[in-house]
Write a structure and sequence with these properties.
mainly alpha, 8 helices
């Protein structure tokens, strides 16, 4: 039995090499550190996305280079056995919690 080319590509596609991701960012005129700072993160935070799954970091990088995150890291978005999409929702801090944390620890006690 011969599989269609598109199905063969889908089942054998690997994650991009970290150097390819960095090169794609450079081609867009930015870097991981610059993108991290631009996103309000520490300059080294997005580098974690290259070695471990983090939906928010993957989204930031994929938007910066214009390629869907599931194309960059297919192993993180598709089940290796069934090749069906894996749900990877981003956890968002509740707005109420974020607002209550603002101003804590800055010495403004009234």
């Amino acid at each position: 039995m011969t599989l269609p080319k598109s199905l063969i590509l889908l089942t054998t596609q690997n994650d991009w090499h970290p150097a390819d991701i960095i090169a794609a960012l450079r081609k867009k005129g930015t870097s991981l550190a610059a993108l991290s700072r631009q996103s309000g993160l520490s300059s080294s935070t997005l580098a974690n996305t290259l070695s471990r799954p983090w939906a928010k970091g993957e989204m930031l990088i994929s938007q910066a280079i214009g390629v869907p995150a599931e194309d960059i890291w297919p192993s993180r978005y598709f089940d290796p056995n069934t090749r069906k999409p894996i749900s990877r929702p981003m956890r968002m801090r509740p707005k109420k919690f974020a607002e209550s944390k603002r101003g804590e620890g800055c010495g403004n006690h009234s």
